[in-house]
Design brief:
The chain has about 220 residues and is of the alpha/beta class. It is built from five helices and 14 strands. The protein has a single domain, classed as 3-Layer(aba) Sandwich (Rossmann fold), CATH 3.40.50.10300. The strands form four sheets. It has an eight-stranded mixed beta sheet with strand order 5-4-1-6-9-10-12-13, sandwiched between helices. A hairpin with a 2-residue loop joins strand 2 and strand 3. The protein starts with 9 loop residues before the first strand and ends in a 5-residue tail after the last helix. It binds cytidine-5'-monophosphate. The site of cytidine-5'-monophosphate has 13 residues, from helix 3 and strand 9. Its cofactor is FMN; Mg(2+). Catalyzes two sequential steps in the biosynthesis of coenzyme A. In the first step cysteine is conjugated to 4'-phosphopantothenate to form 4-phosphopantothenoylcysteine. In the second step the latter compound is decarboxylated to form 4'-phosphopantotheine. This is Coenzyme A biosynthesis bifunctional protein CoaBC.
């Protein structure tokens, strides 16, 4: 049945935004609400999967019936994901991971002094790319938020990060992207566009995506 399509499968989902500390009371983050990733975690649970959610900063209520691991930084998210990678059948990276973090994290609150101050940032590890290069049998799904040249950037990302599916959303479109309850996505595999979905609730998008995942892992894809 559709309900049990993912029964016995271990699904690892990342959601929310990462928090990159500047000092004990300040941080850099982004507008991620966590809603898309949470909807995926809930839907996978409803389809019978054993779900672990690696959750960053989010405004949406945390789903029930899934194991939640709360983290702050991209570095912590990377560690949490890698610790559970070998055990996962499916990995879905819906989190908005910061590309950069402060080069140094001050132990004490930074004091106000000069007229100008410079914050130096360094690149964070790319978790999805790391998973893509390490994966054995895991089916890996990446996300991309774009504002232009969606097809081109999506296919480039899918190849570079070695994903099985990539879900791209045009965040300039009405009803898509951060904070909203709906999304407008295009789903790609290594051969190109698989599905262009109309405006849907994030639950609806999660259902369509997980149907594709279930169908494909059923055919033995992922390895
Ligand atoms: O390259 P970009 O950040 O747009 O890639 C988006 C995808 O990569 C998302 O699935 C996101 O969770 C993942 N990502 C990651 N680690 C990063 C940056 C992005 O896993 N440092």
């Amino acid at each position: 049945s559709e309900q049990g399509q993912l029964s016995g499968k271990k699904v690892l989902v990342t959601a929310g935004g990462t928090v990159e500390r500047i000092d004990p009371v300040r941080f850099l983050t982004n507008d991620s609400s966590g809603k898309m990733g949470y909807a995926i975690a809930e839907t996978a649970r409803d389809m019978g999967a054993e779900v672990t959610l690696i959750a960053g900063k989010a405004t949406a209520p945390v789903p029930r019936g899934v194991k939640v691991v709360s983290i702050e930084s991209a570095h912590d998210m990377m560690k949490a994901v890698l610790e559970r990678l070998a055990d996962a059948d499916v990995v879905i990276k819906a989190a908005a991971v910061a590309d950069y973090r402060p080069a140094e994290q001050a132990r004490q609150k930074i004091k106000k002094k000069s007229e100008e101050m410079t914050l130096t940032l360094v690149k964070n590890p790319d978790i999805l790319q790391t998973i893509g290069s390490m994966k054995t049998t895991q089916f890996v799904v990446g996300f991309a938020a774009e504002t232009e040249r969606i097809d081109e950037y999506a296919m480039d990302k899918l190849q570079r990060k070695n994903c099985d599916l990539l879900v791209a959303n045009d965040v300039t479109q009405e009803g898509a992207g951060f904070g909203t309850d709906t999304n407008v996505v295009r789903i790609y595999d290594k051969n190109g566009l698989v599905q262009a979905l109309p405006v849907m609730t994030k639950q609806g998008v999660a259902r369509e995506l997980l149907n594709l995942v279930a169908e494909r892992i059923g055919r033995g894809e992922g390895a």
